[in-house]
Amino acid sequence: MRILAMIKRIITEMLRDKRTLALIFLAPLVILSLFYFMFQSNDNETAVLGVRNVDAALVKNLKNKQLKLQKVKSSKQAKELIKQYDYAGILSQKNEKLTLTLQNSDQNKSARIKQSLQLAQIKLRGKTASAQIKKQMKLIRQLSRQLGSDDNHGFAQKNAITYTTETHYVYGSSNSTFFDTLLPIMIGFVVFFFVFLISGISLLRERTSGTLNRLLATPIKRSELISGYLLGFGIFALCQTVIIVLFSIYVFNIQILGSIWNVLLINILLALTALTIGLFVSSFASSEFQMVQFIPLIVIPQIFFSGIIPVSQMAKPLQIFARFMPLYYGGHSLSEVIEKGAGLSKISLNLGILAIFIIFFLILNQLVLRRYRNV
Amino acid sequence: MSTVIKASNLVQGYGKTIVLKQVNLEIKKGEILALIGPSGSGKTTLINSIMGMINPQKGEVTLLDTRMPNRKILSNIGFMAQTDALYWTMTARENLAFFGIMQGVPKKQLKKRISYAAAVVNLEPSLNKQVQYFSGGMKRRLSLAIALVADPQILILDEPTVGIDPELRQQIWKELHHLASEGKTILLTTHVMNDAWEADNLFLIRKGEAIAQGTPRTLIKKYEVQTIEEVFLKAGRLQDAHTSND
């Protein structure tokens, strides 16, 4: 009953505060969109692709506005050619085997070359197919004229060449489209950040306005108070997560290889962690301004350990430090699920650790409330 | 009449600073007691101790024969804090309903209780207005209404008459007397000496010590002065003389 009233109150208050509402639901989308455009910005720059011994038909179909082709005669290694002439990539052919070597320092260019190559092959197949249909139509007409004839020679198939492609990278690897790597982590971070800030400030306001004291002057249990907060803000965190994930799928066209339910689950746990940490930290702030001061202290460092920079390449002490960051577990789980299609069993350890974070801070919150009421 | 609120040999403080020294206080059923003292004298600490927000360092506090701190007893206390602890984006009715539920008012009675509490403080026409559009006086009145909403046996009011116009002040006092005659026990703090005259008993507190206790009339007689204010000043001088003798 009391918990329900708490939840209802939090929702009512939030719905009436239009700016905060906008901050929760629109700001993350703006930030993520900004990211999206930042990493798509140099789309207009043309990439130069060196081609060596490639079928003329394929070359013809490869050409597009953003891809300049350069015939290469030299028999040097592709890697050296790329370094020497700063090609975005080199495509060489041997029989029906294509070898694509990409410079990959600008992942946008690499992505475009790969895309163009795929497109060219599809076009090529389409063209051969349509040419063949035309030829057959002609033959059928001929056949109908000389009915009875069994001249089938014209049907001799001219198969479209199916190329096999092998791709090499001079720098980085195949899964380094930056936005794709970054987005799962950014989703987790954005959820963490906003839930932390809003729940923390909201409890702070409750404290400074005196309503917390008034609440504690009623027979409400401390655990009821905390649960009310957890559930009330949990509902908003859930909505926020769903919106962000849907936005990523439909607007950014990001492919979630794993289950979308796992993505939501990770984000919910991440949001609850942020919530309990936010509530806890808010008791050490005496104003909204002081609450904001906790952002560089508690939220920003989490980014570094969330997987944007590979943690396994960090110095040992930092790697240990990373284990204390909730976003380390959240960010890595999100990358695993979204990029590599990991299942629940693979991320269950990370989720368990997030759950421990939540329980730990829940207990701390209970203890902190003792400062205001001893029972 | 039975004793409802009792503090005996109460010593209270935060860390090493002692805020209350050996306070003894007794309030009987149906009594209105006014706690009078300058800011920093320990009034709020005394109230917090009585409500069981803080454990007594020494001595004990009992409410309705139950030793404090006790969470469940809180449902019998209507509390009005010094600050207008209200949710600004919610309407007066929503504020009342929320605290009503928190105090444990059954859902069926909630509507009736809200109308009653709002009527006492003349807030019925503004019940559906958001608190952020209220004037200072209206907020104070709503805060008082919240203390009344659960029909508690004990009312603890921290500065209930600040920012309220004289007419309404009189009306509120009329209602408080009425509540007391129904058997409710009222403990309030005040700066306003006129409020002191309305109370049954006074409890003068200074530097964490009770310097005088009794009905307004007996106190004035005892200290041979004209006003409560003078009682306070005289008792204060006596306290200082006493402590310098120590």
TrEMBL record, chain B:
This protein's record includes keyword ATP-binding: yes
Name recorded for this polypeptide: Nodulation ATP-binding protein I family protein
Keywords for the protein's UniProt record, in alphabetical order: ATP-binding, Nucleotide-binding
Keyword Transcription regulation: no
GO molecular function: ATP binding; ATP hydrolysis activity
One Pfam family of this chain: ABC_tran
InterPro entries assigned to the protein according to its UniProt record, in alphabetical order: AAA+_ATPase, ABC_transporter-like_ATP-bd, ABC_transporter-like_CS, P-loop_NTPase
Ranges for domain ABC transporter: 5-232
